[in-house]
Amino acid sequence: MNQNVFLNIEKKLQHVSGYVIKQPSHVSYLTNVLFPYPENSPYSVALVAVPEKNEFVLIVPIDWLDVAKDQKWKNSIISYNLNQGSPDQAFCDAIITCLTNLKIDSENLAIDFPSWTVSEMKRLSAKMNHLKWQDCDELLWRNRMIKSDQEIHLLHQSAQIADRGMIGALNHVEGTTMSSYYYLSEFLERVRVHAIEFGTCGVGHLNISQGAAGKSKITPVQDFSFVSEDNLIRIDYTSQYQGYWNVCSRMLFVGKPDEESEKAFDENQSLITYAQSMLKSGIAIGDFCKRIKEKADLSGISLFDETCFGHGLGLSETEWPLITIDNPESFEKGMVIVLDIQTYGPKGVIIHSTETYAITDRGYRKLSDFKEWNHLYRIDGCRSNH
Which domains does the chain have, with CATH numbers? Predict the structure, then answer.
């Protein structure tokens, strides 16, 4: 249980004696208990906490009761059954039962408001109308911005596994483009499978774009298109290791790259190199973004997005800080970010290759360090070891 977080929050809120937290990644952050794809599940989880009394209760659907126990959760658990009513009714009833058991009669409670539906809040307020609620969502996100050494270690592992998954898939496609047919859908599936083989605990977003289709951010494979020569390919995917996410985008070229494609990729890399030269604690994020845009303008490089160049990573795919041109805050030691500078290539395709960094007191530490991707990757041969 991450009790220091509660101490940090209590300094900002007034007379709060308990917490009811629903956002799954907040719950995992506070308890170190992970749940199976909770953001995409009809089930809800919550943490009810009264730190002064050392009371911490997980609210889980009965199907996930063993999930918490298997991860050595030693505090109380209340499970709910969907046969007790609709999912939100059963969930809220379990929370009301928990608050009643804890004998919270006339106290202020902190709650992460954006995670709750209107109907859930109405149900809680109707049954517990003596309670006063204060929003602690922003404070939780702010605490999560600064990662511990253990979190940085897990994010490092996540970044390495993501690139290993990409390389495993590339080993399958190399040598196939001249002598046999290889489907784009198969290529993308190999990325997912190899990421799992190398240790990822889950894959989120998956996308592959080839040639002119790369003008769009998302290009679902809807037919049996083949990997074909003389094309730029962009693969984007997200994956997580023990709950900690990575965002991985890589650019490839099938065959010998034409001069225009190589130039577009090198221009994108020049902006990444420039961004790295500024990346350190104390630099204002908005100024960081403005200088990248100014560099692009001076170099004649067209940006796909002129306002956003990445975001934080952690137990969610997107976390604070948001690396946007209107963000007045500064980078701080312990932040982990994915740098995502998107530019235009030939035929208007989107060029981008992401990198993950931990901010240090002296600059940064690159976490996506399994392989250097600073040259346009060519699929034009066959590896002897595969």
Answer: 4-144 (3.40.350.10), 146-379 (3.90.230.10)
pLDDT tens, residue by residue, 304-328: 999 999 999 999 999 999 999 999 9
Nearest to 133 by CA among 55, 18, 7, 52: 18
User: Which residues have a Cβ under 8 Å from the Cβ of 17 and sit 6 or more positions away?
Assistant: 50, 52, 104, 107, 108, 109
- Tokens 């932040």, located at residue: 335
What is the C-alpha separation between 166 and 195, in angstroms, rounded?
Answer: 7
- The number of residues making up the chain comes to 386
Round to whole Å and give the CA distance between 231 and 213: 10
| Position 385 pLDDT exceeds 80 | no
pLDDT at res. 145? 97
How large a percentage of the chain has pLDDT more than 70?
95
Contacts of residue 174, Cβ cutoff 8 Å, sequence gap at least 6 = 379, 381, 382, 383, 386
What does the block give as tokens for 196? 């799992």
Q: Around Cβ 111, how many Cβ atoms within 10 Å? A: 22
Query: Averaged over 93-111, what is the pLDDT?
Result: 86
- Per-residue pLDDT of 214-246, as tens digits, reads 999 999 887 788 888 889 999 999 999 999 999
Strands 108-111 and 16-21: parallel
Contact 244, 357 (CB under 8 A): no
Calculate the CA 117 to chain-centre distance.
23
| pTM greater than the 0.90 cutoff | yes
How many CB atoms lie under 10 A from the CB of residue 62? Answer: 14
- Whether the per-residue pLDDT at 367 is higher than 90: the answer is yes
Give the contacts of 256 (CB within 8 A, at least 6 positions apart).
378, 380
